[in-house]
Write a structure and sequence with these properties.
Elements: H1 2-12, E1 29-32, E2 40-55, E3 60-62, E4 65-66, E5 69-85, E6 90-102, E7 126-142, E8 145-154, E9 192-201, E10 204-212, E11 222-223, E12 232-233, E13 241-249, E14 271-289, E15 292-311, E16 318-330, E17 336-339, E18 346-347, E19 364-368, E20 370-380, E21 391-403, E22 410-420, E23 426-437, E24 446-458
Parallel strand pairs: 11-14
Antiparallel strand pairs: 1-2, 2-5, 2-24, 3-4, 3-18, 5-6, 6-7, 7-8, 8-9, 9-10, 10-13, 12-14, 13-14, 14-15, 15-16, 16-20, 17-19, 20-21, 21-22, 22-23, 23-24
Organism: Chryseobacterium taihuense
Protein name: Short chain amide porin
Length: 459
């Protein structure tokens, strides 16, 4: 009976994994499969709910009504993840859920109108990740070197820290999105199917993958002038993609058990890293000139830096979090992809005036051939209380994009604050963001804004 009670206690409570800024969280929802706790199953559940007010691009309508500004509610993410350490070398992971469900879209395929399968209702669950991995060289077996090999639908997509960022602990309200440059084109919500290798050599961490991208089949618009050719996603029978990210961790070492890179440690670690990465797929896009199809490689590079440093006297519990990255994207001539998170608008057919090139709602030129510079920083304000009711972390971010398709570059910013009730496990985030609005490829863009409140729970 004593052994049974001990096993039940271990199954309920474990502290083998650090908490996300909460002293009460421990190891989370974890079931140990043996008394030692080195064989286990862990579950992670989370929801991010948005309340948002958005200025619409010119020529937008929502629900058949022309509008320049509107409110929106939506489940940005509603997910569940489970991973099992079967032996000390073998682990399996699954991750499923929904994204971007609003009052009017994001529901099950083909839903419309009213009734039980009306607009925005009953979204489709799908797998984000599903892979298994084997630790060929465990830490300590070969000095400073370790190696794990895996295969499946995975998130080891290289390129940058942000490309593999955890959605549970962003500094800002969300990813800048452009760091997921293939999102839902040749990947499945940032994932591809393939094989990967990860590991460390001392403070040097590496991640590499070889994947078969999902097929894309957009038809390029034919042009007689090669200077006007616009590349689109069409990879035919896709060539293999190669990706990698390499990072040196100067201070505390970060865990590489899972691929998800932490956005803000809230002072629980002292981290300073420099990294660089790439993604390459041969003949990933196409153009049409004089009815002749030309194929173009997708070649993406990045270099970035990340710091999360406690500040001042330890009793004040202050910390600074910062990230900066440079991204060089080559998708082919004049490639631009317009995206808007949870865009609820459609084109107003009766609009008279200059429409946004990107389209209606909150669409913007998110990804394209050219260069992007991104930086963000936040400050966890001091608190001397043992268990403060709320911790506050103001932050700001800046993005500069210079795409070949536009003569003028664009700049945009985000400013806001995290309001932590229980670290990242229970927090409210408020943020105001701007976006560029191009009505001409030769003129400077104007700017629109949106205000978002996010409610996050994470177990």
């Amino acid at each position: 009976m004593k052994k049974i009670l001990s096993f039940i206690g271990l199954a309920i409570i474990s502290s083998s994994l650090y908490s996300q800024g909460s002293p009460d969280y421990g190891g989370g929802l974890k079931i140990n499969l043996n008394p030692n706790g080195d064989k286990y199953v862990r579950f992670i559940l989370w929801d991010q709910f948005w309340i948002r007010n958005s200025d619409m691009n010119p020529g937008s309508m929502v629900g058949g009504e022309p509008t320049e500004n509107t409110w929106n509610l939506g489940n940005r993410r509603l997910r569940a993840l489970a991973y099992a350490q079967i032996t000390k070398r073998y682990m399996i992971l699954t991750h499923f859920g929904i994204n971007n469900q609003t009052f009017i879209n994001g529901g099950a395929p083909g839903t419309s109108g009213t009734g039980s399968y009306g607009n925005g209702k009953k979204p489709q669950l799908f797998f984000h990740d599903a892979w298994n991995e084997y630790a060929a060289v465990l830490p300590g077996e070969a000095g400073k070197f370790s190696l794990t090999l895996g295969a499946g639908l995975h998130y080891y997509m290289g390129l940058s820290r942000m490309t593999m960022g955890s959605t549970l602990n962003f500094l800002t309200i969300d990813s800048p999105i452009f760091s997921w440059p293939l999102i839902d084109n040749s990947d499945q919500f940032v994932r591809q199917m393939g094989i990967f290798a990860k590991g460390k050599y001392g403070k040097f961490e590496y991640r590499m993958s070889l994947n078969k991208p999902f097929a894309t089949d957009l038809t390029p618009t034919n042009t007689l002038n090669p200077d006007n050719a616009v590349a689109v996603d069409n990879n035919g029978n896709p060539n293999w993609s190669k990706a990698g990210y390499f990072e040196y961790q100067f201070l505390d070492e970060e865990s590489n058990l899972l691929p998800y890179k932490v956005g803000s440690y809230l002072g629980t670690k002292k981290v300073f890293n420099l990294g660089a990465g790439f993604y390459h797929q041969k003949e990933g896009t196409r153009t049409s000139v004089n009815s002749n199809i030309e194929k173009h490689d997708i070649t993406l590079f990045s270099a970035d830096a990340f710091a999360d440093i406690p500040l001042g006297n330890a009793k004040n519990k202050m910390a600074v979090s910062a990230y900066a990255g440079y991204f060089n994207y080559q998708f082919g001539p004049n490639y631009v992809r317009n995206l808007g998170i949870m865009n609820i608008a459609a084109n107003d057919p009766n609009f008279v005036g200059q429409r946004a090139i990107a389209g209606p709602g909150n669409l913007q030129p998110m990804i394209g051939t050219g260069d992007i510079i991104y930086a963000q920083a936040g400050l966890l304000l001091p608190s001397q209380a043992e268990k403060p009711k709320i911790r506050i972390q103001p932050f700001a971010a800046y993005t500069h994009k210079n795409f070949d398709a536009y003569e003028k570059s664009s700049s945009q910013f985000d400013v806001g604050a995290n309001w932590f009730m229980d670290g990242h496990h229970a927090k409210v985030t408020t943020q105001y963001s701007t976006r560029p609005v191009y009505t001409s490829a030769t003129e400077s863009p104007t700017s629109k804004g949106e205000f978002i409140i996010q409610l996050q729970i994470y177990l």
